[in-house]
UniProtKB/TrEMBL annotation:
The keyword Cytoplasm does not apply. Signal peptide: none annotated. Pfam families: Aminotran_1_2. GO terms for molecular function: pyridoxal phosphate binding; transaminase activity. This is Histidinol-phosphate aminotransferase family protein. Residues 24-344 form the Aminotransferase class I/classII large domain. Its cofactor is pyridoxal 5'-phosphate. Keywords: Aminotransferase, Pyridoxal phosphate, Transferase. It comes from Caproicibacterium amylolyticum.
Amino acid sequence: MAYQLNEKLSRLEPYIPVEETAGIIHLDANESFLNLPQALLQKASESVLQTSFNRYPDPYAGELCEAFADYYHVDAAHVTAGNGSDELISILVSNFLMKGETVVTTAPDFSMYTFYPKLAETNCVEVCKGDGFTVTPEELIQKVKETNARMLLFSNPCNPTSLGLTKEQVLQVVQNVNALVVVDEAYMDFWHASQSVLGEESQYDNLMILKTCSKMGLAAIRLGFAVANEKLTGVFHSAKSPYNVNTLTQRIGALALREQDTLKSNTEAIKSARDELQAGMSAVLEHHPNAFQLYKSCTNFVTLRLPPAAELHAYLMERNISVRKFPGFLRVTAGSKEENTAYLTALENFFQEET
Ligand SMILES: *Cc1c(COP(=O)(O)O)cnc(C)c1O
């Protein structure tokens, strides 16, 4: 007898993260370069000691969702917590779509948007972004209509382009399609609250917003949220596995989200680091006009497009600087002052050696 893997699994390519290696400057995963402050780590460890490890977690993560709702000024009854927003994307794709139905996303966009549909045996159609790395609301609306899609899923601001659609543009899309519009606002904290559609969910029966704690210094605990009206939230609660967010994550996540001043000052520090990185790259571009195309980032990373992207990636890697490589472009996460300087120096040297 021989066991045969099914077709979708035999074709699957594993996700290979860049390894965490000592001595390497990691600007490749959009993590925060700041750990939680010592006082918060202390509180977290005390909370761990008070945990009843023999008991299951709260299935609806009530306290945690309250803390999240307070931080983002939304209704706690509109919130579902997830084991990272990755898990929430997986649940959305496999349960809010039937086998064979269509989800529209954009390209380039977050890689998980095409990964989960393959596993769920749903169709995934991509709207390709041009040289400017943007799409218009009209293009999204048209593609959803044309394909009779049941879901539209995209990040705003976008990973990996670093660019965003305005709130008005996103709502235009929501108002003009019958599909469920899932707006992944993983990076919105680094742009501006005025561009977020959080809070709009009560007005629409087809809007869901995803958030994550991974970019604010909590990537280790795996914590994300979905925000939608009460009806959709009820359905989401029924569709997820009951104990999806473990007790330690619930407790530490709630503690952190209640330290609003700390989170806000860390967000500001990351935004300054991003601005510094952006300015440094503009300066390199001035020394080497047309060496690459630079985009004005509203995220915690800066994207640059250039034909020798692979060569630059390898050059940086040889100097122990790891950035994320895509076909024809690179994504560089904002790091500490020292990390940004090391990267910018290497970038300048690369173009000097090239000419
Ligand atoms: C980083 C990121 C996430 C975060 O996923 P988690 O599973 O919460 O770590 C979600 N969406 C986008 C677009 C991201 O870049």
